[in-house]
Amino acid sequence: MAKIKKKITKNMLSPQDEIKGITHTVSDYYQAYRQQANVVLTLVALVLIVVTVYSLVQAGNEKKSGQLFAAAYDAYDPGGGAPPNYPLALQRFQEVVKQYGGTTNSAIAEMYIGNTYASMGQPDTALKEYEAFTKKHAGETFLLGMVYQRMGYAYLAVGKGDEAVKAFSKAETLVGTGTATLELARFYDRSGNIQEAQKKYKAISDDLPSSAWASEARAKLPPPDLGQPKPAQPGAAAK
Fold first, then answer.
1. What angle do CA 225, 227, 233 make, to 5 degrees?
2. Which of 55, 109, 129, 223 could be 96's S-S partner, Cβ–Cβ 3.0 to 4.6 Å?
3. Cα distance between residue 130 and residue 48, in whole Å
4. First to last CA, the chain
């Protein structure tokens, strides 16, 4: 006897039921991850709040440190013919660093602590301060160049000419042709290294033609070759 196969009919969902199913699936997915999403959003909000508060605090610290730095500089260089008060200036520069570390004014104050020691006739102590600055603020290109320049003067004060050349050379590399270049030219000139001296003087004359340094540099350079015939050397055979 032949077997009769029953035809199984699949229940088809209406479009409305399919939409409801998709909606429930999305809702379940959202409910599962909503807590995680809320945590992420909360963390982002907290980070934004911390950054904003930090920025406001830093702005306030920069203002306060600027006022204290200005008072320190007034003691360092009062102007108007008044004598400097280096001990007071040193104390105030140190206060800027102590109270407002991490600010721009604090970094500048650290450099001026070294400058103050140098002005007080203590180049060795100044060098220690400068060395500490170069290690702490390696990313501050301009300030680092200024510190290396001051290190050059301090090394000259203690009779370490080779170290002075290294310091001035680093300063020149960081900030370009300027005071350090002139000091290198003068040092080479005093040392009898005329060739190197003239290279530095020429750099000043070419790069800073309108500066007061350029006048000194041009006075040290040989006159330019204007294409005029050179005088005959004594004893040269006449042609």
1. 80
2. 109
3. 37
4. 138
Q: State the pLDDT confidence band at 59, using cuts at 50, 70 and 90.
A: low
- The model's pLDDT over 19-49, given as tens digits with 9 standing for 90+, comes to 555 555 555 555 555 555 454 444 444 444 4
Distance from CA of residue 208 to its chain's centroid?
23
Q: Report the alpha-carbon angle 102-54-66, nearest 5.
A: 45
Q: Among residues of the chain, what percentage have pLDDT more than 90? A: 62
User: Residue 136: CB partners within 8 Å, gap ≥ 6?
Assistant: 110
Comparing 2-6, 53-57, 189-193, which segment has the lowest mean pLDDT?
A: 53-57
Task: Please give the radius of gyration of the chain, using alpha carbons only, rounded to the nearest integer.
Answer: 36
- Find the length of the chain: 239
Name residues whose C-beta falls within 8 Å of residue 87's C-beta, 6 or more positions apart in sequence. 120
**Per-residue pLDDT tens over the stretch 64-121:** 888 999 999 999 999 898 999 999 999 999 999 999 988 999 999 999 999 999 999 9
DSSP 9: P
Token pair in block for residue 44: 């982002």
Query: Which of 221, 222, 205, 223 lies closest to 213, judged by CA?
Result: 205
CA 136 to each of CA 107, 111, 132, 217: distance values in angstroms, whole numbers, following the listed order: 9, 11, 6, 35
Q: CA–CA separation, 110 vs 146, rounded Å?
A: 12
- Residue 191: predicted pLDDT: 95
User: In terms of Cα–Cα distance, which of 180, 86, 29 is closest to 188?
Assistant: 180
